[in-house]
Write a structure and sequence with these properties.
Elements: E1 10-14, H1 17-25, E2 29-33, H2 43-50, H3 56-71, E3 74-81, H4 82-85, E4 93-96, H5 108-121, H6 127-135, E5 140-143, E6 149-150, E7 162-168, E8 174-178, H7 194-217, E9 221-222, H8 223-232, H9 242-257, H10 263-274, H11 281-295, E10 304-310, E11 313-318, E12 326-329, E13 336-337, E14 350-351, H12 355-358, H13 373-376, H14 380-390, E15 394-403, E16 409-415, H15 417-423, E17 428-434, E18 442-449, H16 452-467
Parallel strand pairs: 1-2, 4-5, 6-8
Antiparallel strand pairs: 3-7, 3-9, 7-8, 10-11, 10-14, 11-12, 13-18, 15-16, 17-18
Length: about 475
Amino acid sequence: MYGKPPQSLNVINVGVGSFADVINSAGGQAVNVDWRPPAGGDAKAARALAGLVNDPAIDQANRTALEKFLSAKPVLEGVERAGDVIPGMGERTILHSGPPVDWQDVCGPVSGAVIGAVMFEGWARDRDAAAALLRHGEVTIEPCHHHSTVGPMAGITSPSMPVWVVSNATGGNKAFANLNEGLGKVLRFGANSPEVIDRLQWMATTLASVLAAALAASDGIDIRTIMAQALYMGDEVHNRNAAATGLLFKQLVSHALRSGLPVEDIAQAMEFIAGNDHFFLNVSMAACKSMLDAAHGVPGSTMVTAMARNGVEFGIRVSGCGDQWFTTSAPVVDGLYFPSYSMADAAPDLGDSAITETAGLGGFAMAASPAIVQFVGGTPADAIARSREMQAITIGRNNALTIPALDFAGTASGIDVRKVVDTGILPIINTGIAHKEAGIGQIGAGITRAPMACFTKAILSLFETHSGSPA
C-alpha cells in the first residue's frame, strides 16, 4: 500500500443523511439515498405488503379501477332538494363529513353545524332544543360518503337543503354536494346564528330556483372540461377556484337569463356567485366523488377512492375493501394562521374536500397553481416538487387533466395503498383550518399529509382478504 496515491472515496449512503454530510466534508463524495423502511418499520404491515406487491391479479384490478375512474365523465345536471334525490337519506337524517362519528364525540364545528341544520329544518326552535333531539337519537347523523355525497369542512347536508346533482355520463352513477355559502360566519364552520339560517333559507329558495332553472335550460355542464381549463388558469380546484368559478358563472348566466324567472332573483343569485371565488369547490368535489365512486368496488384493487376527515378521525376507503373505513386520529394542521390564531386554536383536520386530492387535484395539482402557496405556505418550486412526488404513489396519470408546469403531464391519479406503505410517501392535502370552537370560522390554511396508520391498516385488511389468512 505504501507509495500508492490515496484513492478517492465514493459512497452511496442509505438512510441517515448526516453520514453522507461527514464524508463530503472530509473530501469524499457521497450520494444520499432517501430510503425509509416499508410501513415505517412496522414488521407486520411490511410482511403483508410483501404478499401484495408484484401480484398480477392485483395489478389487473388496479388497471380496471383506474380505467373506470379515467373514463368517468362528470356532468352537472341539476340542483335538487337533498331529501328528494340523495339515496337512503331519511327525513330526520343529517349528513356530515368524514368517516362515521357518534354525536357525543363530534368536534366543535360539526356540533355547531348540525345544531344549525336542525334549526334550519325547523325541528327545533333553539340550540338547546336541537341538542336535546340529537342526544335522544331523534335526529340521525351519518357520513356524506355513505350516501354518494360530499361536503366541505363540517359537510352538513340536511333534507331541505339544495344540492348539486352530478352524473357520471359513462358509468351512470351520481354524486351530490351542498352549495357553497361563501366565507365568514357560515354553517360549514359551525356558525348557526339567525343570519346564517336566513342565508340558508335564501339559498334553498331563490338561489336554488335560479340554478335549477339555468341547468334545466342547459344540456348539462361538462365539469371535467371546466376543471381542465381551470388548471391552465392557475387553479388546483380545491383551495383555489377563482378561474373555475368564473368559467361556471359564464355558463350559468345566459341560461338563467332565459329562464323567465324574476330579474331581481337572477341578479341576486349571480351577484352571490360572482362574490364567492370558492363557489365551484362543491361542484368539483361532487365531480371527483362521481369519478371515484365509478372506480369503487373492484375486487382486489388497492386504489384509494376516498380520503376524508370529521375533526376527530381521518379515514380512507379502498376500492377492493367495500364500505370499510380505515381510520386514525385526525391531525392538527401546522400551517399559516391568521393574525392572533395558532395551532392551539385549531380543530383537527376536517372535511370531505380531500376527495379532490384523492382524484389527483388539490395538493396533487399544486404545480398548476403557484399562487396557492401564498395561502397554504411554501414556494412555487415546492408546489412543483410536491406534484412530482405524488407520481411515486399513484397507479397512473389522468391525461384529461394536465399541468403546464409539468410539461403538460396528466395529474397523478389512483393512489395505491401499496405504494404509500412501500415508499413512506404520504398523500399531500392542502386544506383550510377551522377554529376548534363552533362558529368562529376559518383561522388559517396549510399543507398536511394523510396519516400512515390508515394505509397500514388497509394493507393488513387487503392481505387477509387476498391470502385468506391474517397478516
